[in-house]
Automatic annotation (TrEMBL):
Protein name, as recorded: Exonuclease SbcC
Organism per entry: Chlorobaculum tepidum (strain ATCC 49652 / DSM 12025 / NBRC 103806 / TLS)
Coiled coil, from the record: 245-272, 365-399, 502-597, 694-779, 876-931, 957-1046
UniProt domain Rad50/SbcC-type AAA: residue ranges: 5-208
Keywords from the named record: Coiled coil, Exonuclease, Hydrolase, Nuclease
Amino acid sequence: MIIQKLRFANLNSLQGEWEIDFTRPEYLSDGLFAITGPTGSGKSTILDAICLGLYGQTPRLGRITKSSNEIMARHSGDCFAEVTFATASGAYRCHWSQHRSRHKRGGELQSQKHEISDAVTGALIQTKLQETLQEVEARTGMDFDRFTRSMLLAQGAFTAFLQADADQRAPVLEQITGTKIYSVISMKVHERRRDELARLERLQLECEGIRLLGDEERRALETERAECIEKERELNAGVETESAAQRWLQEIARLEAALAAIGSEAAALDAEREAFRTDEERLRLARSAAAVEPQYAVLKLKRAQLRRDSEELAAKEAGRPKMEQRWLEAEAQHEATEKALASAQESVTSARPLIAQVRQLDAVIEGKRQEAERRKRELEALEERRGRLDAERAAASASVESARNGLQKLRAWQTEHHADASLVGALSGIRHAFDELHPAAERERAVASGIASVQQAIGQLRDEIAKIELESKASQAAFDEARKALDERKASFTARLDGSTLKALRVELDLLRDRRHLLEEIVALYKSGKELLPKITELGANIETLESEEADATRKLEHARELLAHAEREAAAQENLARMADRVRSLEEERRRLVAGQPCPLCGSEHHPYVEEQVLPESDEAALDVAKRAVQEYSRSVRELEISVAERRTEIEQMRQWRDDLAAMRETSGRQCLALLEKAGVEAPAKEAEPVVLENLAENKRKVEELAGRIEQLDVLEQRIRDDEARLQQLNEAARSDKRRLEQAVDQQRVNRFDLDRLEREREAAQCELAERRQLLRRLVEPYGVAVGDEIAESLVAELEARRDAWRREEERGRSLEESLRIGEVSLRNVAEQIAALDADLAMRREEVEAAFAGVETSKKERRELFGEKLPDAEEERLESLVQAARDRLAASSERFNAARQALAVLDTSIAELRRAVEEEREEVERREAEFGAALAGKGFADEAAFVAACLPEAERERLESAATSLEHRKRDLDLKRSDREARLRDELERRLTTLSADELAVRIGELQAQLRDVQGRVGAIASRLEAHRQAADEHRSKMAAVEAQKAECRRWEMLHSLIGSADGKKFRNFAQGITFEIMIAHANKQLMRMTDRYVLLHDLSGALELSVIDQWQAGEVRSTRNLSGGESFIVSLALALGLSQMSSRNVSVDSLFLDEGFGTLDEEALETALKTLGTLQQSGKLIGIISHVPALRDRIATHIKVTPLTGGRSAIEGPGVSGPR
């Protein structure tokens, strides 16, 4: 396995996203690189990122979970680690990540994600946490422990191992080889042996504590129990008889009491009905009123509408004179505005010529004025400049004076507050002391809160303990009562068994049922035998008939075959004749070629009779057809006869088989019947045994029914006993639960008191710490004159910060004032020179301005004489505005006049419509009032007031209806109940079960029940003692078996303990460590041979974990490892580390190794030797990373990954293949 790439983000001090590519040529060519940087810069975080990406945990922090993630960088909302690695099976990418809620740095941690994918295709292999971890272990061949021992070599551990003595090497070896489990196993075996022996002792003591009854005592108890059961049966019968009579008397008394109660209830009901008379009359009137209520509702609506319209008409008629007056006023105003518009238009026409003349004169004046103004502006600009210079001179003088005064005041302030100068450097310490004070105060408050909570819990638990004690007493009382009831029921069950057992009764019932099945089977066999005999006789007769028919059919078949043979011969002869004739005819052409006296080419004869005489065979076609039809007819007859004969034979064979089968069945039934008769114990001949079997079967059925009924009753009783036992068990469990709860509560109370003592001590410590931190803060702020009380507010530090900031501001202001003083003095000299030059130019400019303004005033005088001070445009605009205002007033008055006229017309129309509507509505109301009055008279109401008084609210009417219905139903129910009780009383009186009174019966039943309880108590006590004896015997046998089994178990653990068990775990640990030590030395020697041929490691047998070296350069001298120099010790330690790596990785090829620390203690020569030694490992293709803060490594190793600390607790990485945040 080799690490190819590493990518991670926000781990410890390495904030942001980083990537390291280990496939770069710089790493592959050298095979050795260094990860350097100061202590605490984050070098080991790179190895943590590799472990995190692969296994989701680190050697220093363990597994990262949702509740704990100490590796995520501060002020970060997420982090991840991704490792790309290659093995023999391929290249893979493993990614682990975790983030806070919404990726905010203060959010809650979310569940981590872990996935593995194919690095080439990107296909996901697994995304679930546990399954991903299993996939990583399968692909790499290593779990986390093996990985850290195989690829991350803590070289300092082996240095400690070499320098330790034999006793100290065992725990070190456990740590670096992971063999601690053997110590645990050894101690566990020792503890298990101790526990098994203790268990055996407990079992033996329990077995000895079981007490059993003697045989004579047991038999006496059983005899006494039988006598008591018989007496109990007699007493039960007596109690049942007397109880029935008592129940009869009680029923009669109950019925008489019920009749008396019914009479009382009827009287009360009559009183209620009489009291309801008034409400009944109200209900009758309300029902009548409800019939005309819809008409009344419509009438009320019409009246309301008439009232609203009448009021609206009156209001509009009252407002009409005012509206008419507004119309007349609008008309007069309209005429006045028309006259004003004509006057304004005439004024505009007369003023236009004068306005034109004045405009020309204004243009001349404006030209002169602009020239004068220009000269004036130039003068004012110079004067303004002169004024600015005066202001600048005054300002410069004031600034210089202000700066001098400010500096003087500043120096005085600094002298007064000279103590604040030290706040610039000391405030951070004060702030730190103040910040430390708050957590101490918080701790003191938290402890005080905890004490209050614990004290409250102690009080609550005290109440709970008292409550549990009461519940425990109640549970125990219920348990005792249930136990007593169970004993009584068990006694009754034992009595009903009558000396037998339920199991024996069931066995007896099963035997009876088996015998019944046996007898029923015998009866069935008899019936079957009787039914088979006529069938066998019938089959014999049928077989004889079929055999006769088969013989006749066989004779007919032989005759038909003879006729068929004759017909076939005749047909064959006719066919031969026909073929010969055809042959002769077919050779006619050849015969014509024959010559007399010459041989025939076919037969060689020189005589040719067919040519000479023309001899042809005779053939009859009709005879041939007749012969063929005869053959077909005889063939069909033969087939039919063959089928018939075959069918007869088949039927005969089947019937013979059936007859034989039935005969065999009858014979088998006979044998079975004999066997079953013998099994059933019926001593009678087989032919005469059927009546005996039927008699036994009837008797058997009777016994089965009786026994089944008895068992059923016993099953019910047994089920009740089991229910009682279950309830008893529940009560017992409840009692035990209460006891456990009480013990837990007492234990918790003890824990609470312990916590209270601990919290009291913590409060005392917290108060001391708080006092010390207050005293420290007082000492720090004492030079600044600040008083510190017990309650130190945030304003204290704020005040000091304000004083420090004030000192800084004043220092800055002093520097500013000095600079202002220098600049002001220079400015004052420059301004004085500019003022002298400007005064000469101002005198000449003033004379020119005075002459220009004199010409302007001459022209203005001429204009004032012509037009005054008025402006032509303004005057013209004023006149036009007068005309426009007159027009606007005319339009407004016209609009008001038209609106008033229209409003008056609308009002007149509305008044007319309302008058018509009011008249119609008044007629409608009168008509409906007449109709409503007629309806009231029909319902019996004198007037509308009587109707309104009779109306009831809906809820009230429903209440009265419900009350009337309820009274009626109750009367009917009482009549029915009275009839029922009277009939039942008559029936009970006719039974006459006893002549005794109820008191006499009660006394008699009490006496019988007392005797019965005494007998049942004795039966229960005897049954309990016998059952206890039986249970004790069963328990004794069970305990003895458990003792024997436990002895075997103890022997097994004793044997294992003799081999590996010990109290401190040394026995098995030393054995396992010896084997592990030998294996590690063998692997280390293989690695050591690659580095140097001088040393060979040797297990010194003089001690369990002693180690020596053979010096090959000193004639094989055996030396102690403590005599090795620093460089030699490093080589041996490195060989041990690499040996462990090979041993831990087993069959996995580990091609990436990381050595963490161990170089800081080497001198120059030893360091050189160590680096040369590591360089030899490049030949095996391994990539080795050395993590160290030693500066000398930079000069001796070409390839570096440098981790550099930055500000704010962050670090950066530099090196080949390294890319960081952009």
